[in-house]
């Protein structure tokens, strides 16, 4: 049953991407990916984040925290609690997921004038950014560009973990910056 659900979810995502076409438009606002509206459903993940003095002092920035996901442990999440992934083809530490790939795996863009902010167990020293080939900056962790997955419909979901889609494997990252390859 679990395989059936994962397959159906992947098929639905692929159909959604096909419906979008292969437009090479880069008109997506860089702040929209970093500031998606929080969902109204509940999460099965346990948050391990807590505000830091940097958060209170700056009030600006894209917050990266962690949440514990069953069978994966503490992993990186965005401000809305959505799981963040790395893309294995980015092994040269450069954004390679663009156009159709980015429609399924939206990059975590860094709005102009803001910086990534570590919350809780996330290490500030591992945060950075990389230029997206289509424009803007994508937040990185330990050099890996970060992405969300459209099939993760709520915080605490990690349906993209260890799947081969859009040209490569996708994995979550630990707060230490290590790639977690465990299948959920």
Brief rundown of the structure:
This protein is an alpha+beta fold and 184 residues long. It contains 4 helices and 12 strands.
Strand content: 15-25%
Rg over alpha carbons:
15 Å
> How far apart, in Å, are the first and last alpha carbons?
14 Å
Uncertain regions: pLDDT < 50 for 5+ in a row?
1-58
The residue fraction in helices comes out at 10-25%
What summary fits the major beta sheet? 4 strands, mixed
Kindly state the mean pLDDT as a whole number? 77
N-to-C SSE string, H for helix and E for strand = HHEHEEEHEEEEEEEE
Number of β-strand runs = 12
Structural class: alpha+beta
Count every helix, treating DSSP H or I runs of 4 or more residues as helices.
4
Shape: globular
Give the arrangement of secondary structure elements.
Blueprint: H1 2-20, H2 30-34, E1 46-47, H3 53-58, E2 62-69, E3 73-77, E4 85-87, H4 100-104, E5 109-110, E6 116-118, E7 127-131, E8 137-141, E9 144-145, E10 163-164, E11 169-173, E12 179-180
Parallel strand pairs: 2-6
Antiparallel strand pairs: 1-2, 2-3, 4-11, 5-8, 7-8, 8-9, 10-11, 11-12
What does this structure look like?
The protein has 184 residues and is of the alpha+beta class. It is built from four helices and twelve strands. The chain has a domain at 63-184. It has helices spanning 2-20, 30-34, 53-58, 100-104; strands spanning 46-47, 62-69, 73-77, 85-87, 109-110, 116-118, 127-131, 137-141, 144-145, 163-164, 169-173, 179-180. Strands 1, 2, 3 and 6 form a four-stranded mixed β-sheet that branches. Strands 4, 10, 11 and 12 form a four-stranded antiparallel β-sheet that branches. A hairpin with a 2-residue loop joins strand 8 (137-141) and strand 9 (144-145). The chain starts with a helix and ends with a strand.
């Amino acid at each position: 049953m679990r395989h059936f659900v994962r397959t159906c979810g992947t098929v639905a995502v692929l159909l959604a991407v096909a419906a979008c076409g292969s437009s090479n438009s880069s008109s997506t606002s860089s702040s929209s990916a970093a500031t998606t509206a929080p969902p109204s459903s509940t999460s099965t993940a346990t948050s391990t984040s807590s505000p830091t003095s940097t958060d209170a002092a700056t009030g600006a920035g894209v917050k990266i925290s962690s949440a514990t996901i069953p069978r994966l442990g503490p992993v990186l999440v965005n401000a809305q609690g959505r799981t963040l992934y790395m893309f294995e083809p980015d092994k040269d530490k450069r954004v390679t997921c663009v156009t159709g790939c980015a429609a399924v795996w939206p990059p975590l863009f860094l709005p102009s004038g803001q910086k990534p902010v570590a919350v809780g167990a996330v290490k500030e020293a591992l945060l950075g950014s990389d230029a997206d080939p289509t424009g803007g900056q994508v937040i990185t962790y330990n050099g890996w560009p970060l992405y969300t997955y459209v099939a993760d419909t709520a915080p605490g979901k990690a349906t993209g973990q260890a799947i081969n889609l859009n040209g490569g494997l996708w994995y979550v990252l630990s707060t230490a910056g290590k790639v977690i390859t465990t299948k959920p």
